[in-house]
Specification:
Length: 817
């Protein structure tokens, strides 16, 4: 109805006359649509009793709105502005969908006539520009196509009498012929459809089924359409998804409406209509759904016995598929509700399978796959295979896959899409390798089990299809398997992965070697063998590993036995973080020496022994001594090098004792540096250590060691130790040493002290020289200079002047012509 007052004041919003529309939406809530002139406002029944509550929707539009018509349950809003132009808004967002709908005449008014979920009719009154009258027009929505048009007098007004009325009412004035502005009378006129079928359709839209039946009898029309509309209406009443009612049916109401629906279906002759309605109708519960589907099956069974039986076979298949799907639903969701079934009945079963696969519900996915493969099997292509394989959860346990895969999916995928064999192999290869990190505790046995499972499925697929007699599929699969033997194929790589995992499992279980997969499968097989040996802890494990695994590994990959073992030894020594200066036996000794003993090439074995003893910690362990003796016993060209290494043990001990291990003992040029470094220290074993250095290098002599030690004592002012050292020497060595010391002292006394170091050095030299004066006089050698006779007295004088008076004197060389 239209509001007949000028204004309604709701919370400060002024609604114009004619712009407020009251509508009751079927059995549900009351809606009010209105306009304030510049905006469209929408209230629901929850806010009408208290206008101060916030409005549900407020669509602001910069137009002078005079009429608001909601269409399709408010999904669209049809508006009329003051300029006679129509527009369409979205009832949800308020966005303008159609602006200024094309119309040759200005629209004066508009009312809603009738409509359903898809189409609607509205009545317009337009100003006729060609005459002084108006045009009454019925148009459809959407599209605004003209259905009926009638010329009427100026001043005609529309009457809104509600939805689905049997006639269209309007008020038309009688105009005075002499003065068109004067109305002599008002007439209420109605437009009634003259075609019986159109009037019947209007009755059916109004759901007046009793009147429709009487109308059909009166006009001798077929009641089939009435029965169909009644059946659709009963289904709509039981629809759990209907949005206009939240009420749920109890058991008694549901049973009553089901019986009414069955009675209505029994009056319909069109079996196809009955079947389609039974299959597609959303019903309140599963019991009712099964009852209606069974009824459709019975109707079709009786119909197939008639002449039209062949035409209804597809309908029987449709009903059977719906019943079959319902049984699937009850199997996998025994405690679910009707809402879930309504969604399940319309879903794509391949998508349903993928959804459960992603969730890890393998039993449910298996049921869906086997029961409904016939529905989506024809759509399986390589893209679908990729989608299915990528749906397996990343963290799904491999033992579940090994149990589930042989009975599900893969064989069917290859049958439906032979090219998928490569894709499956590629997926399987990656999945197996990922297990090394996902299920590390069970690796590599879990990876081997999964790889063998996938390979077994793919290799047996041809035999499985052979019994089917499909020559095209057989040929396609044979071609795919032939390609799989190429090194570039994924199945070939999967087989190689399986072989590698067999080796890894043997190494892990029998030899406790757990090498990584990528490390084992690298291209450098010599490095792989070295990595396997590196996993061993003791020398006792070397021989069993070589006899039980590595010998066959060398043969398979074409590796030289001795060369590969030598590579391991050299790499171990090269990567050792400690050298000969450590204070304990090296960790590699036991294992490396065991590997050396297995090398059969004598020359190569001795080479490895030389490299081992070269960096073996000193003093040598029993194992190192035994290895050196074994190398010497072989009497090869490298025996001299072994003997040299044995001689260097003493030198290494000395260098380590004095923290000189960073010197390269292989460089003779550093020998004197090491010697002087040692003799310049203090300790009881200094000379013994120095003589050990002399013994290691042929270009050094014992005289060098004694001189540099005496030189150190001389320059540091230690006469007692210097005298003691000289007295220990033989006369020949004593003579040479004393003469060298006197020569050095002479040079010092002739040089002026230019800094503190020189001053201290001069004092130390004179002190030490006076301390050994008796021995020095014995070996003093005259040179024919002025100092020969008074050398020691000069030294004493310089020393006394330096000590008593702090005077630094030096001897000036005489001038000669």
């Amino acid at each position: 109805m239209a509001v007949s007052v000028d204004n309604i004041n709701l919370c400060g919003n002024q609604l114009h006359t004619g712009s407020c529309l009251f509508r009751r939406r079927r059995e549900e809530a009351t809606w009010v649509w209105g306009s304030t002139g510049k905006e469209v406002i929408h209230w629901m029944s929850s806010s009408l009793h208290d206008p101060s509550t916030p409005f549900l929707k407020e669509f602001k539009q910069d137009i002078d709105i005079t009429r608001v018509i909601p269409v399709f349950d408010g999904r669209y809003v049809l508006t009329l502005d003051g300029e006679g132009k129509l527009a369409v808004l979205c009832g949800v967002t308020g966005i303008m969908l159609q602006d200024e709908i094309e119309c040759e005449h200005s629209v004066l008014d508009i009312v809603f006539l009738e409509g359903d979920e898809a189409t609607a009719q509205v009545l317009l009154i337009l100003k006729n520009r060609e005459s002084q009258g108006c045009i009454l027009r019925i148009v459809s929505f959407p599209g605004f196509a003209t259905i009926y048009e009638l010329n009427v007098n100026d001043g005609t007004s529309l009457v809104e009498i509600g939805e689905s009325a049997e006639s269209v009412l309007f008020v038309e004035p009688d105009v005075d012929p002499n003065d068109h502005e004067i109305f002599t009378s008002l007439k209420v006129k109605s437009i009634v459809d003259g075609i019986p079928e159109a009037r019947l359709a209007k009755l059916l839209r109004s759901r007046k089924f009793t009147e429709a039946m009487e109308f059909c009898k009166t006009f001798n029309l077929d009641v089939e359409e009435v029965n169909k509309a009644h059946a659709r209406y009963l289904c709509d009443l039981m629809n759990p998804w209907r949005t206009y009612s939240n009420a749920t049916l109890n058991d008694a109401e549901c049973e009553d409406r089901t019986e009414k629906l069955l009675d209505a279906l029994g009056t319909i002759r069109d079996v196809e209509f009955v079947t389609t309605l039974c299959v597609e109708a959303p019903l309140p519960d599963l019991v009712t759904t099964k009852k209606i589907l069974n009824y459709a099956k019975e109707r079709l069974a009786s119909a197939t016995q008639s002449e039209e039986g062949d035409k209804l076979s597809s309908l029987m298949q449709q009903v059977s598929e719906s019943t079959y799907r319902l049984r699937t639903f009850e199997t996998i969701f025994p405690a679910s509700d009707i809402q879930h079934w309504l969604a399940f009945s319309r879903t794509d079963m391949l998508e349903e399978f993928i959804l459960h696969l992603q969730k890890g519900n393998l039993d449910v996915a298996s049921t869906v796959w086997h029961r409904h493969l016939y529905e989506f099997g024809s759509s399986i292509d390589i893209d679908k295979v990729f989608e299915i394989l990528s749906s397996f959860p990343f963290n799904m346990q491999s033992d579940k896959l090994c149990t589930w895969l042989p009975r599900n999916v893969f064989s069917d995928l290859v049958k439906l899409c032979p090219d998928s064999m490569e894709v499956i192999a590629m997926w399987g290869d990656k999945r197996v390798k990922d297990l090394e990190f996902i299920e590390k505790a069970e690796w590599p046995s879990n990876g081997l089990a999964l790889a063998d499972t996938i390979i077994s499925i793919l290799e047996n697929v041809v035999a499985d299809f052979h019994a089917g007699g499909n020559i095209e599929v057989q040929m396609a699969v044979h071609v795919a398997q032939w390609k799989a033997h190429s090194p570039s194929s994924a199945l070939y790589h999967l087989r190689q992965t399986s072989l590698a995992l067999q080796d890894l499992q043997l190494l892990a279980e029998k030899f406790r070697v757990k090498i990584g997969f990528h490390e084992y499968t690298q291209e450098d097989k010599v490095a792989v063998a070295a990595s396997i040996l590196d996993w061993l802890v003791s020398g006792e494990e070397v021989a069993p590993l070589i006899d039980g695994f590595l010998r066959s590994y060398f043969i398979r990959h074409g590796l030289q036995h001795d060369t590969t073992l030598a590579y391991f030894i050299r790499e171990t020594l090269r990567s050792a973080d400690q050298d000969w200066w450590v204070w304990q036996e090296a960790q590699w000794e036991d294992k490396v020496y065991a590997v050396v003993n297995i090398i059969t090439d004598v020359q190569l074995r001795v080479e490895c022994i030389v490299e081992c003893v070269h960096i073996a910690p000193v003093p040598w362990s029993e194992g190192t001594k035994a290895m050196c003796d074994a190398g010497l016993a072989l009497n090869t060209s490298l025996s001299s090098q072994l003997e040299d290494q044995r001689q260097l043990v003493g030198l290494k001990l000395v260098l380590r004792r004095h923290s000189l291990h960073l010197y390269k003992i292989d460089n003779p040029q550093l020998a004197e540096v090491m010697l002087r470094n040692i003799v310049n220290r203090d300790g009881d074993t200094i000379m013994e250590d120095a003589l050990q250095v002399v013994a290691a290098y042929k270009h050094l002599s014992r005289s060098d060691a004694y001189f540099w030690r005496a030189f150190h004592l001389l320059t540091t002012g230690n006469p007692d130790e210097l005298k003691k050292l000289l007295l220990q020497l033989e006369e020949s060595q004593q003579k040479v040493t004393c003469q060298k010391l006197i020569a050095y002292a002479t040079q010092v006394l002739h040089s002026p002290p230019i800094n503190c170091f020189c001053k201290h050095r001069r004092k130390s030299v004179t002190t030490s020289l006076l301390g050994i004066e008796q021995l020095a006089r014995k070996w003093y050698k005259t040179t024919g200079t002025l100092l020969d006779e008074k050398f020691f007295s000069t030294v004493r004088d310089i020393h006394e002047m330096q000590v008593m008076f702090k005077l630094l004197l030096f001897v000036v060389k005489p001038y000669t012509t």
